[in-house]
Design a protein that fits this description.
- The structure is a single chain.
- This protein is of the alpha+beta class.
- It is built from 2 helices and 6 strands.
- The chain has helices at residues 4-13, 109-123, and strands at 18-22, 25-34, 43-50, 62-65, 82-85, 88-93.
- The termini are far apart.
């Protein structure tokens, strides 16, 4: 289902993760993903939905359950949509890679998780 490099990454960095199928997509759920400072929660479950053809096809967007909000009340851009997957409501983080940003055969879930972490840091309020 997932390339060995992704299975190894998840085993090392995301204990308790699950991999399942939903509507033809591969769903990876990482429980209690750390969000960093500036959010109303310290962790949330992170879901990645991978299209058939992954890893040749880049991941697109990710989802959190429960929804993540900034502590200062400012809306996080492109996170207002809620979607039902795997029996839960998920907050969709609509983020898309630029052409050429995903390198088939080079990038993996580890590099995609780095993008998720970077976007979380950008979405968080700056320290005073």
């Amino acid at each position: 289902m997932l390339p060995q490099i992704d299975q190894d990454c998840l085993a090392e960095r995301a204990p308790g993760h699950t991999v399942s199928s939903d509507a033809g997509m591969i769903c990876v759920v990482i429980p209690e993903f750390p969000l960093g400072p500036g959010f109303d929660l310290s962790t949330a479950d992170l879901m990645l939905r991978l299209a058939p053809g992954y890893p040749d096809i880049a991941p697109d967007m990710w989802w959190f359950h429960p929804p993540v909000r900034r502590t200062d009340g400012t809306q996080i851009p492109a996170t207002q949509a809620m979607e039902h997957h795997l029996g839960r409501e998920w907050q969709r983080w609509s983020r898309h890679l630029q052409p050429g940003q995903w390198r088939s055969g080079i990038d993996s879930l580890e590099s995609y998780l780095a993008i998720v972490r970077r976007e979380l840091a950008l979405a968080a309020p700056k320290a005073a």
